[in-house]
Structure formats: C-alpha cells, structure tokens
Amino acid sequence: MSASAIVLAVAGTVVASLFALYTSFRLSKESSRTSARLIYGELTRNSAAVAYFLRTGTWPRAKVDAPVWTQRSESIAKMRRVVPFNSIYKGYAALEALAFVAQEGDRLGPSSQQILRTEVDVLRNAISMAGEIAKIDRKEIDENLKTLEVRASAASASAFVHVQLGTGFVPPEILRHVWAQAGVAHEALGQPSEAPSDQTSSPGTETRAGAPDARLMRRVYDAQHSRTGLRRHQARSEGEPPVADITINEIFDAMGNTHRFLWEAFRCDLQEFTGSPMTAIAHYGERYDNVYWDGTQLVVGDGDGQLFNRFSASPEVVAHELCHAVVSGLAGLRFANQAGALSEALCDIFGVLTAQFAASQTTEKADWLVGARLLRNGDALRSLKSPGTAYANDPVLGTDRQVAHLQQLVRTPDDNGGVHINSGIPAHAFYRTAMALGGYAWERAGLIWFEALKDPSLRPASGFTVFAGCTVGSAVSLFGEATPEHQAVLAAWEDVGVHPRPRPQAATPMA
Q1: Is residue 298 classed as helix, strand or coil in its secondary structure?
Q2: Where in the cell is it found (predicted)?
Q3: Cα–Cα distances in Å, from 136 out to 35, 122, 385?
C-alpha cells in the first residue's frame, strides 16, 4: 500500500472518529437539555408550595415528589461540569427542608427564618440552573423566581387563601395569579363575607324529579374547618332529611344528581368508581379555595369569601370532580399533556351535562359555563362555548388562557403540560357537536363522547387525534355512517383543528 493511501486511510479513520465524537456530544447535549426542561417543570411545580407558604404562612396539603429527577438526573450528572448536577440536587433537597421548616417552624424557633432564607436561595439557584440548561426564556425564569421572594416574616403573612396543590378543580395557573397578587386582592376585595344564599335551591332540594336509584348510598361529613379527622362528624346520610346547613345539602344533592345523570343517560353506576357509600367532606379547612376527588372521597372547601364563593354552590364543579373517578377508571388517562387535557375536558363536559340534565336544559338554553356560581366577581372559570373568555383582566385571576384550536396549543412545563389550558380544545369540539345536533346534549353528543371513553384503542397517553378517532367510531357504531351525528362529530373536530385518527380495525377471524 502506498504512503498516500495509508495517509488517506488514517485520515479517514480520524475524521470518522471525530464525527462519532461530535455526534455523541451533540446527542448528549440534546438529552441534557430535554432532561433539564422536564426537571425545570418539576422544580417549578413543586416550588408552588413554597410560594404559597411564603405568601400565607401555611403549607398546602401537597406532596413534594421528584419522579422526573429520579429518572433524568443521570443525564445531568454526565455533563462535563459538576456544578449543574450539584446545584439541582441541592434544590430538591431544599424542597424537602422547606416542607419540614414550614410544618415544624414553631418548634425550631428563631432559627427557622434563617433556614428558610438559605433553603429558598438554594431552590432559586436550582431553578435558574435548570432553566439555563433547558434554554428557557430568561423572563419566564425570573417570573418563577419572583414568586420565591422571602418576605420579612412569612409566617405572619395574611392567609388569603388555602388551596389543594397539584390536584382539584382550581388549576395551578389561577393559583399562581392568586399568590402573586395576594396583597392586592386582600386590599381590593375587602374583608371576607358570607356567600350569597340566593344562588341555589332550598336546602336539600334535588332539582330533577324522581327518587335516586335504590343502590345509591351517600354520606357527607362535616370537617368543621379542620384538615384532620375528617370523618368524625357525619352530617347527612342516605334516607335522612335535609339539614339546616345549606353546604351539606348542596353537596348531598350534587352527588345524587351526578349519580342519576350518569345512570339514566349512560347506564353508568358512579358508585362502581367511587365506592359505596359515596363519601364527601364538607367545610374542609379554613377558607379553603378548592374542591377535589382524592381517590376515595370528595373534599369540598368553603371558599375565601373574597374571590371564591362556597364550592358546593356550583353543582357542575362537584360533578366534575366526581367524574374524575369515572374517567380515570374507564380510560386511565395520564394527567399530563394532551391526555391530561382530555381528562379535564371530559370532566368539564360531564360536569356541565350533569347540571343541564338536572335542570332539563337544551343545548340552546344552557350557558356552557363551568364554575358559574363560583366567582364572586366574574362569570366562571371556564367556558365550553368560548374557551379563553370566562374572565378577563381580573386583578387576581388575570385573564383566561384557555385555547379552542389546536394551532393555539400551549406547550409549557407548568400545570402538567398545560392540562387546564389545552382542555378547551376537546371541550369546544364537544360543544360544537352538541350545538349542531341540538336538543338535549346528553342524548346524542354526550352518549358519543361517553362511549368513546370506553374504546379499547384509547391508551393512558392518548392525545386529541386518537380520542377524536374514538368519537368518530362511536358515532358510527351508535348512529351509523354519514348520519347527522357522524357528520357533526367530524365537523366539530375539524373546526378545532384536530384530524381524527382512524381506529385500528379488529382482526377478522379466519374461516
């Protein structure tokens, strides 16, 4: 072999090696950036508990968890610099320390303030580091860091609201506005006052005629504004007459109406998913601003009286939370990204349908609002008819960020991938289907959506296109091809920019 050939061979080997090293470096860098984005989202989500504590002096009932860090920390550890891994690792440790300080501050004495400041600084540094690696816009990083500013005495801050973090009807997007504007809200809205009593039926009145199903068993407990020992005081159970407490009766009626709606409209027994007796906790916490299903029971707050009325006054909100048990049980949709947005949309849909069913409302007469009686100053929290218009320029809530078209899809590490923002897309598709068909929305549009929820092709991580395909398939199965129902479903998804993915065909058995 000639000398030139040897040189070329060696050069080729060197170039190939360098290219392989470059490719490996580039892939490693991209992997680190992806991991950092996910870690950034997890850190900011967990830090919301810290922000709430700094504003109110109360630690919310929320678990500080770190599944993303557990899965992705290795890619950060492999970076050339040691500083990123150490900084982020310490940030997660700071979260645990802050949770401890928040709950044991009185026992720690004066030293708790110094520990608080130190650990918050560590957490802020971790968020900043993860954001820089992830290439997050610096303005967004700074906005998140601003919520973690330590005041002179966090423990003496006004307890404006109490919230359930990471779960419940009121989404984190709104809660962050509340925390950020807590001082403004306290001054602007004045002292707490009793929620209007003329916004609901008389105590114990179930708005739709007919006795509950014989198998229905309900129990409502009075937490008496405590967060522990929730089932010590039973306030009302099945077969007992209405009580003097309007909140107890509203919750009791909403549970019955949700059960009756699902059974009469879809032959779905709610108690197969909630357990029997169906259990609810009223008067949870002090001025507690949320309602949530925790997997075994419904927990209902009274609202702060400034921004939120009592949550029991919005039957569609109570139904929304109960329907999480059904949606989770039937489809097991993950509460993140498009799958999570689908879960939220379905619960909004079945929530408003429960209210429409109880009031015998047609599509034309319904207002299609979710949380219409919830806000003291505002229309609602969400609108199926016109996502993004439920409230605007509110000094505390800000402006409704829900979207109604796939082109507006919001990609964010917050709110589990924007589940409450992007839920407007499938929810609006349902609204358009229901309006095209007219009459009672649960009879055709609702039945199509509910049957789609049971489609075996639906998976925990399924997105909009897959579920859209399921609704098209159920419309054909229930009403036939090229029928008004089939056409209405196709047109509705097209109007929101979603192209239904055809369902996989079942295998034909061989003769």
Answers
A1: strand
A2: Secreted
A3: 12, 19, 33
Q: How many other C-beta atoms lie within 10 A of the C-beta of residue 275?
A: 14
Whether the bond into 277 is cis, omega within 30 of 0: yes
DSSP string, 442-507: IIIIIHHHHHHHT-TT--TT--HHHHHHHHHHHHHHHH-TTSHHHHHHHHHHHHTT--PPPPPPPP
> 59 to each of 48, 95, 404, 462, how far by Cα in Å?
10, 12, 35, 34
Choose among 460, 389, 469: nearest CA to 424. Answer: 389
| Strand positions, DSSP E, 346-468 | 369-370, 382-383
Q: Apex CA 11: angle with CA 10 and CA 12, to 5°? A: 90
pLDDT given for residue 56 in this prediction: 59
Strands (E), 289-424: 291-293, 298-300, 369-370, 382-383
DSSP string, 265-310: HH---THHHH-SSEEEEES-SSSB--EEE-SS-EEE----SSSB--
Please give the average per-residue pLDDT across 177-191, as a whole number: 46
Tokens 């522990």 sit on residue: 228
The burial class, CB within 10 Å (0-12 / 13-18 / 19+), for 139 is: exposed
Query: Which residue is it, tokens 């990204």?
Result: 337
Strand, coil or helix: 28: helix
The 10s digit of each residue's pLDDT in 474-510 is 999 999 999 999 999 999 999 999 999 887 665 444 4
Distance CA 488, CA 447 (A): 13
Residue 276 carries which DSSP code?
Answer: S
Three-state SS at 237: strand
Q: Mean pLDDT, to the nearest integer, of 234-263?
A: 95
Q: Residue 292: beta bridge partners?
A: 299
Strand partners, 218: 278
Sheet with 291-293: list strands edge to edge.
Answer: 234-237, 218-222, 278-282, 298-300, 291-293
| Token pair 């009274």 in the structure block, residue | 302
In three-state secondary structure terms, 219 is strand
The predicted-structure confidence for 333-384, as pLDDT tens digits, reads as follows 888 899 999 999 999 999 999 999 999 999 999 999 999 888 877 789 999 9
> What mean pLDDT is reported for the chain?
80
- Integer Cα distance of 57 and 51 in angstroms: 10
Question: Helix (H, G, I), strand (E, B), or coil: what is residue 355?
Answer: helix
Rounded Cα distance between 81 and 2, Å, is 45
Query: Which pLDDT does position 58 carry in this prediction?
Result: 63
Catalytic residues: 321, 420
Q: pLDDT-derived band of residue 154, with 50, 70 and 90 as boundaries?
A: very low
Residue 206 has pLDDT above 70, yes or no: no
